[in-house]
Amino acid sequence: MVFTSKINNPKNTHTIKLRMILPKLLVKPVGRAISDFKMIKERDKILLAVSGGKDSLSLFHILRHFLASAPISFELGVVTIDPQVDGFEPQALKSFFKKFDVPYFFESFPIMKQAEKSMKGNSYCSFCARIKRGLMYQVARREGYNVLALGQHLDDLAESLIMSICHNGKIQTMKAHYINDAKDLRIIRPLAYVRERQLANFAKTICLPVIKDSCPACYQMPTERVHFKHWLLTEEKRTPNLYKNLLSAMKPMLNEAKECLND
Ligand SMILES: Nc1ncnc2c1ncn2[C@@H]1O[C@H](COP(=O)(O)OP(=O)(O)OP(=O)(O)O)[C@@H](O)[C@H]1O
């Protein structure tokens, strides 16, 4: 699918047109997930969390496509959390997002320093994820957004499911659509039906400015997630429908925002 959209040219005040090729293979499953889980409602203000990874950067382009073409109107803003760790330098995103006509929020917080003070030797990664999420909620509330969009995809959901079964004996995974504990924000994962390799191909094809994340704390220990990712991808070679089947199995538990879906 080829579409054109206006972007602000930072050098000139007038707008220029950007031609972007969005493959149907990405647009269709995202459209289906948005519709199946009623992720977007009229006048929603959606804050997309972009780390600079291939998934959230791709999702930015996909949501801009829907912004221009969806039958309902919604607003889109973007937030990046800079955890101030060596090995992750997201500052380049500031100039990238200046090119687009969307509000962009860059929040910097010394998460590593905070971790040294507040936690004693347990997982830095889960501490960092918790603080980052809190900061995203803070920005959403401060700037008047009612929905937070995250870039996890089908591979992430499948890995979480298998990890939860194997480690905790529980059949659960990340939700595609749910409401936070404070009940003031909806969280959506529009890439819930999309495979990681599709996003990697898209990011490569249009040369997205992917930010390398080599945070020393994450890279010190090859995570369980990486182990299960390889496990599933190996199994997929024997069972080509593996992810399709896992999605069918997960579907009934992906939506926890039903109570707000009838308005
Ligand atoms: N520092 C950050 N700033 C903004 N959003 C973030 C940040 N870290 C994670 N996120 C959000 O959480 C999602 C999942 O994060 P995760 O760490 O699994 O992916 P990632 O390695 O950041 O890369 P990607 O953008 O490719 O998903 C991201 O897709 C993004 O929406």
Automatic annotation (TrEMBL):
Chain positions recorded as ATP binding sites: A49, V50, S51, D55, I81, G151, D156
Domain of life: Bacteria
CDD domains: TtcA-like
Any single biological process term in GO: tRNA processing
Name of the protein in its database record: PP-loop domain protein
Keywords: ATP-binding, Nucleotide-binding, Transferase, tRNA processing
Domain called tRNA(Ile)-lysidine/2-thiocytidine synthase N-terminal: residue spans: 45-214
